[in-house]
TrEMBL record, chains A, B:
The lineage of its organism: Bacteria, Pseudomonadati, Bacteroidota, Flavobacteriia, Flavobacteriales. It comes from the Bacteria. Keywords: DNA-binding, Transcription, Transcription regulation. Residues 1-61 form the HTH tetR-type domain. GO terms for molecular function: DNA binding. This is TetR family transcriptional regulator. It comes from Myroides indicus. It holds the Pfam family TetR_N. The keyword Transcription regulation applies. InterPro entries: Homeodomain-like_sf, HTH_TetR, Tet_transcr_reg_TetR-rel_C_sf.
Length: 183, 183
DNA sequence: ACAAATATACCTACTAATAGGTAGGTAAAC
DNA sequence: GTTTACCTACCTATTAGTAGGTATATTTGT
């Protein structure tokens, strides 16, 4: 992996573990054994770095959508929720959860990028739920987007709160979401 | 209101709007037209301030419990969820949501206080749900604590995500939680 | 093929601003 | 005369960010 990608990966992990305003360029430069100025060579500002991180997640989302496109709706949702479980086990929460918490400390440009990632995620979830409902896999009685909102906010909140209570609570909630859908 | 309480209130608002690691003592001192050192007179460290803020919320929770103790379970839940709506409209999220996001940047002492506030909130919600379920108001088929977890994480996530999407999404989710309970 | 030009990927050394925090003083109230 | 509620003046560490240098590749012109 090249230095640029390493910086993005480390920044991503730091944001999702400690939050945007709790990490500095020196956290990254120390870890990579390079100097502070070298990070500015790749990313002139911290804003430029967080935008690159969001854009990486936009690409990851597209790859995810592509990867699960042939699966049935139930498997799509299970895979989607699995993405959140994996990183949770290492103390990290999702990028959406972490960044929306710091939303008011961002420039308009970062806010716009975050909106795009959020809407892309929400739209995929809405479409997948609709598909599964029409095929008789899922059962709920409300707008598809509303159900998508409930699921995603439940996951974000669960990632957050289970830091304080118990990591196992996260898995309990995740199972409950799936059971509620296919009941 | 005395200066100490004003500092706590301002710190509380700043944490819930921008996050713990995005506010400084000077944000407070400028607003109150006092000097930085005067805040240290009341709170020797930033840690001491955040602990005082958590303890204020512990007291507020007790007052809330007392205030709604005579109401029926449905009204208790509606009032509980209203607390989250009120501050949300001013851009602030709940103290639980904001602080659990910064959990790994806190000292053990702050983490412990946050755990107490979280558990006290969760326990009240669990008991209230159980009461309402036994009296036939609420309908769900899982442990009471699990249902409490789902509700509270859903609200925390909704506060967060609706910053990015649309404030009205928060109210949609809140209504869905109530409808789901009494359906 | 070979030298010159240029781009890459860092570096040293610095800056201004801000962070949380401290030492010690003072004026007024109790 | 002690406590309260501030103050001035400072400190050290860290922050994001900049200016300009250098060694090593890579590309280009002859």
């Amino acid at each position: 992996m090249n230095t640029r990608d390493k910086i993005i990966l480390l920044g991503d992990n730091l944001i999702r573990k400690r939050g945007y305003n709790a990490f500095s360029f020196s956290d990254i430069s120390k870890e990579l054994n390079i100097k502070n100025a070298s990070i500015h060579y790749y990313f002139p500002t911290k804003t430029a770095l967080v935008i690159a991180i969001i854009q990486k997640h936009l690409i990851l989302l597209e790859k995810f959508k592509e990867k699960v496109s042939e699966k049935d709706s139930v498997q799509k949702i299970i895979k989607f929720l699995s993405v959140y479980s994996i990183t949770k086990s290492e103390g990290r929460i999702s990028i959406l959860g972490s960044l929306s918490n710091d939303y008011f400390t961002f420039t308009a440009e970062v806010q716009t990028e975050l909106k795009i990632l959020t809407n892309n995620t929400l739209n995929w979830l809405t479409d997948t739920l609709k598909e599964g409902r029409q095929q008789g896999f899922f059962h709920y009685d409300m707008e598809d987007r509303k159900k998508a909102l409930i699921i995603i906010t439940n996951i974000l909140g669960a990632e957050q709160l289970s830091r304080v209570t118990d990591n196992y609570d996260f898995h309990k909630i995740k199972e409950a979401i799936i059971n509620d859908l296919i009941k």
